[in-house]
Amino acid sequence: MPLLDVVFLLLTFFAFALLVMVRAEVLDVELPVIEAGRSAEQSGAPVVVTITEDGSLAIDREPVDDDSLIGELETRRTDSDDFTLMLEVDVGSPSGRLIELVQTLRNAGFDRFGVLGSSQSQPPADASAGPAASAAD
């Protein structure tokens, strides 16, 4: 008798799994089109925090470690009347690194920041051109 219960349990499980898979494929959902955002109005140059492809951080192109990031941003915020924080993330960087950075910034009181992006897709860097090709951008 217990074998029959296991068979019915498996049958129920696969019937439910099939129902969920078929339902997910049939849903007619139209996703919104995302257009480029408007330029931010600012008087001074923004402070740019960069996440590189290997996950390391930089502030205004100067490498910084995780421990000194918040201290450096606090210093720049107190030195400037018009503090604007922007995040620049390499497409090859780990996505979890961006989530960690946002959480760290929010915990430190940096609730307002923007994310820099490109208005058009960029072709991948040509490996045969070497590092000089990417430095020209």
Q: In short, what is this structure?
A:
Helices cover 42% and strands 13% of the residues. The protein has 137 residues and is of the alpha/beta class.
Major β-sheet, in short? 5 strands, mixed
Mean pLDDT: 75
Strand % is 5-15%
Q: Which CATH architecture of one domain is right?
A: 2-Layer Sandwich
Read across the widest sheet, the strand sequence of neighbours is: 3-2-1-4-5
Rg on CA atoms, Å: 24 Å
CATH topology type of one domain: Nucleotidyltransferase, domain 5
Shape: elongated
Listing every helix as H and every strand as E from the N terminus to the C terminus, the arrangement reads: HEEEHEHEH
**Helical segment tally?**
4
Low-confidence stretches: 24-32, 126-137
Helix content: 40-55%
> So what's the oligomer here?
single chain
- Could you name the CATH class of one domain? Alpha Beta
The total count of strands amounts to 5
Task: Tell me about this structure.
The protein is α/β, with parallel strands linked by helices. It has a domain at 47-117: Nucleotidyltransferase, domain 5. Helix content is 42%, strand content 13%. The protein is built from four helices and five strands; from the N terminus they run αβββαβαβα. Strands 3-2-1-4-5 form a five-stranded mixed sheet, covered by helices on one side. α3 (95-107) links the parallel β4 (85-89) and β5. The longest helix is centred in the N-terminal third of the chain and has 25 residues, at 2-26. The N and C termini lie far apart (72 Å). Residues 24-32 and 126-137 have low confidence and may be disordered.
